[in-house]
Amino acid sequence: MNTLLIYAHPNPQSFNAAIAKVIEEEINRKGSSIKVKDLYAMKWNPILGQEDFQGYHSGNITADIKKEQDDISWADVVIMVAPVWWHSVPAILKGYIDRVFSIGFAYKYTATGPLGLLKGKRGLIITTSGANQQDADQSGMMNNLNKSLTAAVFGFSGFQEYKLHNLFAVPTASDEERKQMLTQIRELVKNFA
Known about the structure:
Strand order of the largest sheet: 2-1-3-6-7
Oligomer: single chain
Distance between the termini: 8 Å
Order of helices and strands: EHEHHEHEEEHHEH
Number of strands: 7
Strand content: 15-25%
Low-confidence stretches: none
Shape: globular
């Protein structure tokens, strides 16, 4: 099983970094292959430019996009890890999605409507939030994330299975609670990837 981990947090000492490390450890423990994309370390360009847009329609995509699309094609499981900022993920991850999950690669339009092209894959988005679960539910944050990310990216692209897992109230969690969260992620990955 091949897993692609796409990680988006600017602080390499963050709790999100700890989550990414646990995921990588668990995939390696299973004996599966993993590729890790640290978008900030890569200095990923999140801006969908005119050259990108024209490339999608001419078949001449840029080298950076082609590399990422090849890695997504290689993967059986795609895992994204990011904090929640303003009811969404950081712009660098949104820009990755905008540029890489493009028309002609992730989906196409047919006479009967859009068709996802990334069939048979599984997708997991793991996010962290400052909000506790009650506040996240009441504000609509979880609904927004499920609609705008999980279903809109993985579902629209034809993934076979996909889910969102959020860790709540991370900034105020104790060290023990954070350890429990990492154990939870280890079990999630063990059963999903």
